[in-house]
Design a protein that fits this description.
With 290 residues, this protein is an alpha/beta fold. It contains eleven helices and ten strands. It has two domains: 140 residues, 3-Layer(aba) Sandwich (D-Maltodextrin-Binding Protein, domain 2); 111 residues, 3-Layer(aba) Sandwich (D-Maltodextrin-Binding Protein, domain 2).
Length: 290
């Protein structure tokens, strides 16, 4: 009789212990996953995949790509508490994320390059120049057509270069960008024989259809735009894997990754990096970059 009572009780304890162990194991496994939101250019080029593999091999963490694409998509993901770490171009969106208490520890970790693309006959004669402001001066002096592209990053940099050039662009040679899709801007420029400032990666890879136009000015450090990295604020999102995100942020800023950036993409990019170290001087890479 006693045995008939004890055995079911033992079974209950065993099942309860197994459930508790499984729950603990699940939580431990979750803490080894870092959920990420990553700007589209990094996934499109394969950079993020390579960095993820390096990080996983070195640390034992597993990276889960939750969101990738343009900045509004990533902004939505971190505000919804879906990610532990976010990386994308710096700007008003990233500043607002931090100001609203959604993200913490924001800092730059790499840069991409913007370039001046124009007609192959190059009426302003800027081919081969490596100073964007001086190139814009020549475009203005010759009144060669120039498209005021509405892409956020391009527009911000264009304004900076005009300021450095000491010129306020006015006249019928400055053409308003009325493209429906930003990916069509190079063909819009082609149809008008115009110059424009766009990202090197979409122009080089053909993400922006590039028939009939040419990358004419590149290699200006001023035309490199920073990407930031930040963690989800653990006070706002206590379920976030803050420790894992911190480890990944430290990894992105490590000499291992900063040196890797210099070599990544050279085989498909005319022996040029697609992404640049955030600080070539402190990373020991000064003089090694084009």
């Amino acid at each position: 009789m006693r045995l008939r009572i004890i055995l079911p009780l033992l079974l209950v304890f065993v099942i309860a212990g197994a459930i508790r162990w499984h729950s603990v194991a699940q939580r431990a496994a979750h803490r080894r996953v870092v959920r990420c939101a990553v700007i589209g250019g990094m996934t499109m080029t394969g950079l993020w995949e390579q960095i993820a593999k390096m990080f996983e091999a070195q640390t034992g963490y597993r990276i889960e790509l939750v969101a990738t694409g343009e900045r509004p998509v990533l902004d939505e993901a971190i505000r919804a508490g879906k990610v532990d770490l976010l990386t994308m171009h710096s700007g008003d969106i990233t500043t607002d994320i931090v100001a609203d208490g959604m993200g913490v520890n924001m800092q730059p970790w790499t840069r991409n390059e913007l370039v001046i693309v124009g007609p192959t006959n190059d009426p302003a004669g800027i081919r081969g120049m490596t100073n964007g402001a001086l190139a814009l001066k020549k475009i203005a002096a010759t009144h060669a057509n120039f498209v005021d592209f509405q892409g956020i990053g391009s527009r911000e940099l264009t304004h900076t270069l005009w300021r450095l050039a000491g010129i306020e662009p006015k006249g019928d040679w400055v053409i308003k960008d009325d493209t429906v899709s930003k990916w069509n801007v190079l063909q819009f420029c082609r149809s008008r024989g115009a110059y424009v400032i766009v990202g090197y990666i979409p122009a080089m890879t053909g993400k922006m259809a590039n028939e009939g136009v040419e990358i004419l000015v590149k290699g200006d450090p001023v035309m490199r735009r920073p990407y930031i990295v930040m963690e989800a604020n653990p006070k706002k999102f206590p379920q976030a894997n803050f420790a894992g995100a911190q480890a990944l942020e430290a990894f992105l800023l490590s000499p291992k990754v900063q040196n890797f950036l210099v070599e990544f993409g050279r085989d498909t990019s005319a022996n040029r990096p697609l992404f640049f170290p955030v600080d070539a001087v402190n990373s020991g890479l000064k003089g090694q970059l084009p």
